[in-house]
Amino acid sequence: MKKIKQSRKFKLSIIASAIMASPFSCNVFAAQEEAVAKADEDNIEIVIVEGTRSNLINAQNMKREGETVLDAISAKDIGSLPDRSVLEAITRLPGVSIERFAAANDPDHYGVEGSGVVVRGLTHTRSEFNGRDTFTADSGRGLSFQDVPPELMGSVELFKNQSADMIEGGIAGTVNLVTRKPFDADGRVIAFTLDGTYSEFADETTPSFSGLYSDIFDLDNGRLGVLVNYSNSKLKAQSDGTQIGRYEEQNEFVNGQAVFVPRTTRLTRKEDDRDREGFAGALQFENESKTLLATAQFIRSDSSLAWTEHAIEMADDAVINDLVALAGTEFDITDQGLFESGFITSNAGWRGNDAQRQPSGEFGAQHAMITRFRDQDNVVDDYGFNLKYRPNDTWSFNFDAQYVESTSEIFDFSVMGATRAVIGIEQNGSELPDITLLDPANSGDAGFFTDPHNYFWRSAMDHISDNDGKEVAFAGDTKYTFDSGFFTSVKVGARYAKREQTTRQSTFNWGWLSEAWAGNGSAWFDAQGDELGASLGDSYEEVTFDNFARGGVLNVASEGAFLFPKESFVKDYNNAESAFASLSPNWQRLSSRDGAVGDFLNNEINETSEVNNAFYIKGNFEGELGDMFYSGNVGLRYVKIKNETDGFLTFPDTVGDINDASDPDNFLPSDQAAFGNAGFTEQTANSEYTNILPSLNVKLNLKDDLILRFGFSEAIALPALGNLRNFVKITPEDLVITYDESSDERQIQDARYSRYTANSGNPFLKPMESYNYDLALEWYFSEGVGSLTSSFFYKDMSNYFINGSVDREFANNGATQVVQVNGATNGDEGSVQGFELAYQQFYDFLPGAFSGIGMQFNYTYIEEEGSPNAGLSPDKPDSTEGADVAFDGLPLEGLSKDNINIVAMYEKYGINARLAYNWRSEYLLTSKDVITQLPIYNEAGGQLDGSVFYNLTDSFQIGLQGTNLTNEVARTSMQIDNDNNRISRSWFASERRFSIILKGNF
Predict the structure, then answer these.
(1) Cα 897 from chain centroid?
(2) Runs of H (alpha helix) within 466-529
(3) Which residues share a beta bridge with 715?
(4) 9 close to 43: Cβ distance less than 8 angstroms
(5) DSSP summary character for residue 776
(6) pLDDT score, position 877
(7) What string of DSSP letters covers 261-304?
(8) What percentage of residues in the chain have a pLDDT greater than 90?
(9) What contacts 24+ positions apart, CB below 8 Å, involve 808-814?
(10) How confident is the model at residue 145 (pLDDT cuts 50, 70, 90)?
(11) What is the mean pLDDT of the segment spanning 268-274?
C-alpha cells in the first residue's frame, strides 16, 4: 500500500473504485487523480491499495458494476496475471474449465498449458480483443487462448449473459481479453518482468521476458498517450504416457471362460518446445475539453509449439485374437474375463519369410517404434481504432474499426520402425501401471532392443494444415441521455463484419514402407549391400526412456534403450520420399497424391466468406422500488448473416465397360446412367440467416451491499467453419440386379442403384440457438476484498450441431437424383443448468501478521438434459469421422458436474503468496477416440499451483512460482458397453515447473 500525506484516513468508495477499474471509462484513473488532488488540498491521507488486493478489488467492482452477468480477472501491473498463461488464469473463474490434453479429440497427447475453454459445460464461447471479435485461423471460430501472452493483458472479462450491444455468437459466454492503454495510468510507466523457468521432468531451463513503456504528453489542444508492450516466452516440457487399448476377445479360452485382452499398448514420451511472442501497442488522444477520445491499438500474437514424440506401440492386427499368456504364466482376469495383469505374447503362425528373425509359434507381438515431429505456428495480427465523441451531457457517439489477419500452419510427420516384444502389464488402479518389456522369445537377451538386427522400417504418415483468414469490421453507435424518466438513456448502433477464410487441412496420410505381408518383405535396420533397406543406412538412433514417468514404471533389460527412426531424419520431410523410394513403398508424400494441388486435394480445401450485419437498440433504465434502487437494460439485436462457401461436387463413376457384357453398369436406367458420368464441377453454396435477439438485464439493490440480478437473452453460436465444408462426393449404393431366369446363362435384364449417398460438410448449417437465464445474488460485504455471490443459470438450447443425414437433390447431365448427404446438420433440443457459488475475502480484521491472510473459493455444479454430442470432426477433410459412436446415452462432451477452485492468499509486509488448487469431476473427453473408436473419459483430478513474491523496494519484486506442485497423474478410461462400464485407458505423468521471476515497475 502507498500512503499520501499524514492525517486521518480516507477510503475511496466502491463506486469510485469501479470507475477506476472500468475498461469503458475514457480515463480509468481520472477518479484517482482527482482524489489525490483533493487529498493535497485537505491534508487527508489516502490508502491506495496495490498488488493482489488491488487486482481483486478491481475485478470485484467490474463484476458488481457490470451491465450483465460477468466475472473478471484484473492485472493492473505487468506480469500480475495470477498464472503462467491466459488459459490457466481463466480456469480460476466460476464455471470455467479447460482441457489438459492437446485437444479434446486427441486424448493421446498431454498438453503443455492446456487447450480449449469450457464455460458452464459448453464449448460455444466467443473470443474478443478489447471488445472486438478475434480468431485463430483454424477450423473453429474463436481464439486459441493458450497462444496469447498473459503479460499483454490488463484484464480478462467473462460475460455469461448478453446485452443488445454485445456481438452475437457466445451461447456459453464471451471472453474479452483487454490490453493496456496509456491513459490507464496517470503518467509515465516503465515496467518489465524477467524470469527463468525450470521444467523438472525435462530438466530444462527456459527464459521469458516482457517489457512495457507508457507515457502521456501534454499538448496545446489536449494530451497524447503512447504505449508499447512486448513479451517473449519460451518453455520446454515433457510428458510420459502409458496406454492400454481396446479389449478383444481371444480365440483361446482360459478355464473355459472367454478372455478379453488389450489389442494395443502404448508407451509414449513427448517433448514440447513452446515459443510465444507478443506485442501490443496503443496510441490515445484526448482533446482539452475531454469531449473527444481517439484510441488506436495493435496486437500481435505469434505462438509456435513444436513437439517430438517417441512411442512404443503394440500394433499387430494379425494377432489381435491370438494373444496368450507367456508360457509358464497366467493372466489375472476379472469375473467378466477382462485382463488385469500378465505377460502378453502371441501364438499366431506365419510372420513372414524371415523365420530366423520372426519365427512361428509363441513369439512376441509386433511393436511400432514411432518417431513423430509436429510443429504448429499460429499468428494473429489485430488492428483496432476507436473514436468517442461526447459534445455534451446529452449526446455521445462512438465509431470503431477493426482489421484482423490470422494464419495457422501445422506440419506433422511420423516414421515408424518395428520390432517384436513380450509385454507385461500390472495395473495398479488409479496409479501408474508397471510395464515390463521382454525380448519376443523370452530368451533373456539383454541386448535385443538395442540391436538393429531386430528392427525394420514399417510405415510413415504425414499431415499438413495451412490456413489463413482475415476480417474487417466497422461499428458505430449513438447514445442519448435523458434528463428524467424511467429510461436514463437509449443507445442505437450497427455493425458490419466480413470474414474470409481458407482452410487447407490434409488427411492423415498413412502408408506402409515395408511389411512381411506387403510383397516387398521387411526392410531391416541392419540391411547391407543390395538388401532391401540398405540405402537408409543408419537413419535410426538409440533413444532411452530413462526415468520414465518419474521412475518405477518401465522395466526392460536394455535399461530403457530402444532404436527409433532418427529425429533429424523425420524432420527432413522434403527428402523423405526419395529416401524411401528404394523400398517401393505404399506411402507417398501428400503432394505426390493424384489430383493434389500443392499438398492438398480439392476436398481438403475450404473457402468461406461470411458477411455479418447487425443493428441494435438498447435502453438503460433505473428507478426505485420502495427504498430499493434498481437499474438495468433492455434491448433487441437484429442479426443477418450471409455465408458463401466454395467447394467441389463429384458425381459417381457408373460408366459401363462396353467391352464387358456382364458389367451391370451397362444396364442402368437412362437417368442413372446419365447421372453417373464421373463428372466433376466446382460449386458455390449461399446461405442466409436472420434473427432478432432480445435481452433484459436487471439489478435490484436489496441493500447497499446486496444485489439481486436477473439476466435473460436469446443467443446464438455460429457453426465451426470446418463443418461448412462444401465438398460433396456422391457414391451409388445397394446395386439391385435382375436376371433373365429363363436363360441358363443367367443374363442381366436390368440393374439399378437403390440410393445415392455422400459425406460432406453442410454450407447451409444454421447457428445454434439458446434462451439464457441467470438469477444471481451478490453480497459485497467489504469495501476492500470481500464478496459472496451465487448464480443460478439455465440454457434452453436448440439447433445443435450434430452428425445427421439430409436429402438433397443434385442435377447432372440432364438427370436429377436425390442424395442422402451425411454430415453436419441442425437438430435436437436440450438444456444445461446449474449454479455457481463464489467467495473471496482478505481477513483484515485479524491482528498483526494474520491480517494478511485471504481466501478465494468457488464451486460450480452443472447438469444437462437431452444435449447431443456433435459427432463431428471439423478439423478433418471428412467431418463425419466422429460419427457412428459406439454407445447411446453418453453425457455431453467436456461437461464436469462438479468444478472447484480454492486459493489461499497472503499479502503483508511486502510478501505476496498464493496457493491455488483447481479440481473438476470426471467428464467425457471424446465420444469417439480415433484409436479405440470408444468413448474416452477424463477421470476426476486437480492441480496445485503456487507462488510467493517479495517486494525488494517500491519498484522491484522477486518471486518464485510453481506449477503442478504435487506431480498429478492425469488418468483416462474408456467405456466398453452400453451399461457405462469403464476400464482404464491411459495414465500421463506431466511436468512440474518452477519459475524465478524479477519484476520492475517505475
Answers:
(1) 20
(2) none
(3) 770
(4) no
(5) E
(6) 64
(7) EES-EEEEEEEEEEEEEEEEEEEEEEETTS-EEEEEEEEEEEEE
(8) 73
(9) 810/649, 810/651, 810/728, 810/730, 812/651, 812/674, 812/675, 812/677, 812/679, 813/651, 813/674, 813/675, 813/677, 813/679, 814/674
(10) confident
(11) 96
